[in-house]
Every structure is written in C-alpha cells, then in structure tokens.
Design brief:
The complex is a heterodimer of chains A (about 110) and B (about 120).
Chain A: E1 9-12, E2 18-23, E3 35-40, E4 47-50, E5 64-69, E6 72-77, E7 86-93, E8 99-101, E9 105-109
Parallel strand pairs in A: 1-9
Antiparallel strand pairs in A: 2-6, 3-4, 3-7, 5-6, 7-8, 7-9
Chain B: E1 3-7, E2 10-12, E3 18-25, E4 34-39, E5 45-51, E6 58-60, E7 68-73, E8 78-83, E9 92-99, E10 107-110, E11 114-118
Parallel strand pairs in B: 2-11
Antiparallel strand pairs in B: 1-3, 3-8, 4-5, 4-9, 5-6, 7-8, 9-10, 9-11
The chains are: A mainly beta (about 110), B mainly beta (about 120).
C-alpha cells in the first residue's frame, strides 16, 4: 500500500484559512469513515486533532475541522495562528486492522 | 495523567536485534488496543503494528511482517516490540500509541518515542 497523498506544503497569514487535502483509494479513504489527522511540531510526538473524518478531541480548538468526499479527505484550519505551524498527517483505516498515513504537509504561518 | 514512555532504542548493526519497551500509566491498560508507529529521519509516519487488549491478536505492516513481534504484559502495563533481522530502512523514531475506545481506527495518546539506528 502506498502512502496517502498530501501536498508537501501550504501556507497562510495569521487569521486566514488553509486546507490540506489527503487523497487515497477505495481501499482506504473512500472505503471507511475513519480518517484522522495528526499535528506534529518539530521534535515532538504527533497529536490527534481530528478523528472519524470530522470529530474533534476534547481540547482541540474549533478552528480545526475535517471533511471527506469520495477518496479525498480534507483538514481546514480557520483563523490560522502562529502555533498552528507544524507538520500535519492524515491517516485512514485500510482494513484488516491496518492504518495508512499520508505523506505529510508542512503548514507555514507567514 | 495518561502517559506512555518508550525505551530500548539504540544503535544496532544490520541483521541484529533490538527489543523496545513502552510503559503505560494513567488508564486501564488491558482495555485498550495499542500500536507502534515509526518515523524515519526527515520522513513521514508509518504504522508498524497493533495488538489487542488481551495480546491475543497482533497485526503487522508488510514491511516488518515476519521480522518484528509485538507483545504485551498486562500485569506490568508494558508493551514490547521485538525487532529481528534489522535493516537500514528500519532506522526511525519508534512511537507507541494507544488506540481509542478499543477500536483500531485512530490513536489518541502517543509516547515521545525512542530512536533506533541500524548501521
């Protein structure tokens, strides 16, 4: 299985919105409503920010939102803040108790 | 506080073996499936393996199947990843992570990772 496809980088000014796409196949993203997103700051462990396509864990700001259409999932960060600058990874359940991560996207706050 | 602490990483020669551990605290360990995820230097995340709450079921990525063995000791709240026949491409930071609600769909708690270098 190949990694899910994400743009290498996206950027935006503080207060703007950015959207990260995550493209998979019928065997993963399109086949299940179990897409999650993780934020990773340099040298740190990943942190869950979205699960089950669009649900936010407790403590994650509501400026993070997720959606899915067909084989593409998306993470939108609204009202971009300096602390949102990080790497973001999508992840999809791929059947048989396996998970498939995306290639990762670096979000830069200009 | 829910916490996962990995240990056991280090430098090993190609073809060698290493055993990673992950100590859990702050939750009912045996009730949750657990996983290992790795990240090669400058690269993305890669799911490696999962284990059920009882330890009776294990699942592996094709890249490690037959070489890695995931186990757990629920009496010690500890996970183990036995890595044999190591290759240069196994060089990575290895994270243990807790699945949420007993399902295998996403991880809600991660450790800080332990570094494995195969060279």
């Amino acid at each position: 299985q190949s990694a899910l496809t994400q743009p290498r980088s996206v950027s935006g000014s503080p207060g703007q919105s950015v959207t990260i796409s995550c493209t998979g196949t019928s065997s993963d993203v399109a086949g299940y409503n179990y897409v999650s997103w993780y934020q990773q700051h340099p040298g740190k462990a990943p942190k869950l920010v979205i699960y089950d396509v669009s649900k936010r864990p407790s403590g994650v700001p509501d400026r993070f939102s997720g959606s899915k259409s067909g084989n593409t999932a998306s993470l939108t960060i609204s009202g971009l803040q300096a602390e949102d600058e990080a790497d973001y990874y999508c992840c999809s359940y791929a059947g048989s108790y396996t998970l498939l991560f995306g290639t990762g996207t670096k979000v830069t706050v200009l | 506080e829910v916490q996962l602490v990995e240990s056991g990483g280090g430098l090993v020669q190609p073809g060698g073996s290493l055993r990673l551990s992950c100590a859990a605290s702050g939750f009912t360990f045996s009730s949750y499936a657990m996983s290992w995820v790795r990240q090669a230097p400058g690269k993305g995340l890669e799911w490696v393996s999962a284990i059920s709450g009882t330890g009776g079921s294990t699942y592996y990525a094709d890249s490690v199947k037959g070489r890695f063995t995931f186990s757990r000791d629920n009496s010690k709240d500890t996970l183990y990843l036995q890595m044999n026949s190591l290759r240069a491409e196994d060089t990575a930071v290895y994270y243990c992570a807790k699945y949420s609600r007993g399902y295998y769909y996403y991880m809600d708690v991660w450790g800080k990772g332990t570094t494995v270098t195969v060279s």
